[in-house]
Amino acid sequence: MTAVPDVREMVDPVPGAGAPHLPAQPDLVQLLTPEGERVEHPDYALEIGDDELRALYRDLALVRRWDVEATALQRQGELGIWASLLGQEAAQIGAGRALGADDMAFPTYREHGVAWARGVDPLHVISLFRGNDLGGWDPVQLGFNLYTVVIGAQCLHATGYAMGIQRDGADAAALAFLGDGATSQGEVNEALIWASTFDAPVVFFCQNNQYAISVPIERQSKVPLFQRAAGFGFPGVRVDGNDVLAVLAVTRAALARAREGSGPTFIEAFTYRMGAHTTSDDPTRYRLAGELEEWKLRDPIARVKAYLSRSGKADAAFFDAVDAEGDELAVRIRKGTLEMPDPAGTEMFDHVYAEQTEEIAAQRADFLSYHAGFEGAEQ
Amino acid sequence: MADLRQFKLPDVGEGLTEGEILQWLVAVGDVVVTNQPLCEVETAKAAVELPSPFAGTVVELLHEPGTTVDVGAPIITIDLGGDVAPAAPAADDDTPAAGLIGGPAPGGRTSVLVGYGPRNTEAVRRPRRSGAAAAERATAPQVLPEADYGSNTGPGSERPPLLATAPDATTKPVRHGGLETGRQAEAAAAARPDVEAAPSRTVAPGRGAPRPLAKPPVRKYAKDVGVDLTTVTGTGAGGVITRADVDAARGSGARTPAELAADAGTVVRFPVADAGTEGREQRIPVKGVRKHTAAAMVASAFTAPHVTEFLTVDVTRTMQLRTRLAARPELAGLKVSPLLFVAKALLLAVQRHPMINSSWDEAAQEIVVKDYVNLGIAAATPRGLIVPNVKDAGRLSLAELAGALADLTATAREGRTSPSAMSGGTITITNVGVFGVDTGTPILNPGESAILAFGAVREMPWVHKGKIRVRQVTQLALSFDHRVVDGELGSRFLADIGAVLHDPGTALAF
C-alpha cells in the first residue's frame, strides 16, 4: 500500500512563499495572501469597506516612513538608539486598529505602529529615544501605556489593569504586547496564569518576529507559541502577522471575547523583524541573507498595495499622495527632532510621584543650589 | 554662497568611541540629498551605512577608506550652498549650530547623542562661586551625594579616567585584555626623562596636571613630527598651541632624530639616503582583528614563558582508520579530516593529564585546572586569525566532534563567529599543515596553557618494522606555559597524542 503524503505537511507556512526552514502551519489565520489575494477563513470573517482598506494602507506606509526616518536620525547621532519595526507594520497596525476607544494597550518599546494607531505624536516617541524623557504622552487619555523596556513586565501591568476593569464592571479590555523572547520570562508566565484563573479581560498579543535579539525562536520554544495558551487554560491562535486584515479580525474577535467576560486569548502574530533588533545590533552576524529575502516576499505593505491596485480600490494617485504624505511626515519628524529642546536637569524630580514629596522637593532644592554654586550659573 | 557643514561621526551604537570607514558611497562633487547613504562604517558592534544629515554638494571626504575615526571627528564636508540650503544662516566657521549634530554642547562636549558626547576639552573644574551661594550650599542638607550631571562640572571631574588613553604613572591602564601592553607603555613613559625635565613645564606631572591645549590636528601633527606638546608654549587664543608653535619648537632643535628614535611611541621617518625604497613601502593601519591579535600575542608571549617541543609521528594507521570510519553510517555526511583525529587524540591525552588544560590566575596566584575542554581551533578567515572553540569538546562523540569542527570552520569562514564562540577556550590546536608546512612554534592563546601545532601529513621514507617503507608522517609541536606545565608533563602529553595517532588502538588503553 502506497503511503499518501500528508498534504498539510507540505503547506507553506505563509502560502505563496517557499520557506523550507519553517514548519508547516495548518492553523495559520490568513485573509490576504502575500500576493495580495483575498481569502476567507471559516472562523474570522471580516467585513471591511474600501475607505477602511485604504486607511490601513496609509497607516502601514506612514509608520514605515516614520521608522525609516528615525533610523536615519539615529545614524546621524540625533537619537541614542532606535528599535525598528520594519516588517512588523501589519501586526501592529492590525492590532492597534482593533482596539476600542476605552481599551488600554500595554506596549513594549517597539510598538510604534500601535502608538500611531492610538494617536500618539511620533515626536513623543522620538523624544524617548533621544533621551529627553521617558515618554511624554498621556497614557490614560490615549489608551496607550508608556513604553516598557523591561522585557515582559507590561504583561503583568496589563493583567492587573484588566482585573481592575473587571472590578469596575467596565466594557473594555487590555491588550498586552510582547515578543517571542518574552514568553520565556517568568513575569509573562505569571501574567498568563493570573489572567487565566481570573478570566481577566486581557489579550496577549505576541509578535513572534523569530528572534530575541540574536536568539532564534527554536531556542525559545519547542512548540508553536500559540499552543502554549492551552496549557494555561485559554485559547491561543496563530495569525499571519504580515497580514493586516487577518490581524485586525483576530484581535477584534479576541478583544470582544475579553470584553464579554470570556477571559484572555493569546495571539501569536507570526512575523519577521526585517531590520536589526535595534540600531546597536548587526543581524548579519546571526542570520543568513536568504532568510530575509524569503520574508521580503511576504512584505506586509506590498500585499495590501497589490490587493488595492488589482481590485481597483485605489489608483496611482492615491499611492502617490500617501508617499507625499510620508515625506511630509518625515520632514516634520526631522525638524521636530532637531529643534527639540534639551530637558531641564530638574525635570527628573518633578514626576517621580503624582504629588511632590518633601524628600524629593529637598533633593530638588539641593540640586539647584549645587548648580547655582558655580560661577556663570544662572541665578 | 558656500555654506559648509561637516558631518561628525556619531555614536551609532550606545557607547562606541570609534569606527572604521569601510567605503565611501559618494564622491567629491556629488549632489546628495538628506538621508542618502554617505559611507559604510564598521564599529565594534556592527557595520552600518551613515545617511547624510544634509542636502548639498560633497566638498571633501576627510578620511580615506580604512581609516579608524574617533566618534565626534568630522568625516565629510558638504556645501549646503544656494537654494538647497535650509533657512539656517551659515555659521562663520564650519561648526554646526549648538545642539545640532557635531555642534557644541554644554561642558565642552560635542553633540553626538543627546546628553553625552565625546569631550573636546580636558575636564576642568568649573570655578565655584565664593560667598553667599557657597555658604548656603555648605549648610544645605546633604540629601544627595554630589554627582556629575552630564557636563564636566563638579567633583566628578576629578575621577581618574576609566580608560587610560595616555601612559600616566599614576593611572593604571585598565583596558581589558591589554594589561601587559599597557604596563609596558607605562614603563616606557616612566623611562622617558625628557617629559619630566622639560624646562617650560610649570605644573607637576600626574593627576591634576592639565594637558597642553591644542586642537586634535595639531596634536597629531606634533606627534608625527615628534614634538612633545608639554614643552611648547602656546601663542594662540587662551594659550592654545598652534601648528606654528609646533614648527617653532621643532626648529629650535629641542629634540634630535636620535632622541626621537629612542622614543618608542613615536613614528620616525629617517631621511632616505637610498631612494630605492621610495614608494615601495606600504603602511597598513593596525586595527580590528589584526589589532586584537597583536595585543593578545604580545600579552601571551611576554606573560607566559613558552616552551615548545616537537614530535614526528608515523600516522599511517590513523589515516587508514580515517578511511574506514568515514564509511560508517555514524559519520555519513560528515567531514572526517585528519584534524578530527588529532583533536580526538588531544582530548584523550587531556583526560590523562588534566593539568595541561589549565590556566594561570595571576591575580589570585592560583592555577585553575579545568574539568571541561573548550577546544580552540585557530582559523584563518578573510578578516584575520580567530580562535573559536568547541564547547565541552571532551564530552562529544567522534561524530559530534566532526560536526562541531565543520560548523566552527564554516561559521568562521562566513565571518559569523560570535564573541562567545571565541571566549572561554581552554586549549588550542593550530592546523598549520593545511598550508603545507611541517611545523612551527605556536604562541599560546591567552589564558591557556598549551597549544598544539599540527603539520602537514607527508609520505616519507620511514623505518617500519625494521625496514625502510614509505609511510605517512607528520610533525606535532606543543607549546606550553612553563609556569604551569613542566617539561615532563608537556612531554608526556605530547607523547600520548603521538601514541594515539601512531596507533589509534592505544586509545583503548587510555
Written description of the protein model:
The complex is a heterodimer of chains A (379) and B (510). With 379 residues, chain A is of the alpha/beta class. Helix content of chain A is 43%, strand content 8%. In chain A, α1 (50-75) crosses α2 (89-98) and α1 runs antiparallel to α11 (300-310). The longest helix of chain A has 26 residues, at 50-75. The radius of gyration of chain A is 22 Å and the shape is globular. Chain B has three domains: 4-110, RNA polymerase II/Efflux pump adaptor protein, barrel-sandwich hybrid domain (OB fold (Dihydrolipoamide Acetyltransferase, E2P), Beta Barrel), CATH 2.40.50.100; 192-272, E3-binding domain (Dihydrolipoamide Transferase), CATH 4.10.320.10; 289-509, Chloramphenicol Acetyltransferase (2-Layer Sandwich). Chain B has helices spanning 132-139, 179-190, 193-197, 216-225, 243-251, 257-262, 288-301, 316-326, 338-352, 398-413, 419-422, 487-502; strands spanning 4-8, 18-24, 31-32, 37-42, 47-51, 56-61, 68-70, 74-79, 104-105, 109-110, 306-314, 358-361, 366-369, 375-381, 384-386, 389-390, 427-430, 450-454, 458-464, 467-481. In chain B, strands 11, 14, 15, 16, 17, 18, 19 and 20 form an eight-stranded mixed β-sheet that branches. Mean pLDDT of chain B is 76; it is low at 83-117, 133-186, 193-208 and 254-268. The chains are: A alpha/beta (379), B alpha+beta (510). Chains A and B meet through α1 and α14 of A and β5 and α1 of B.
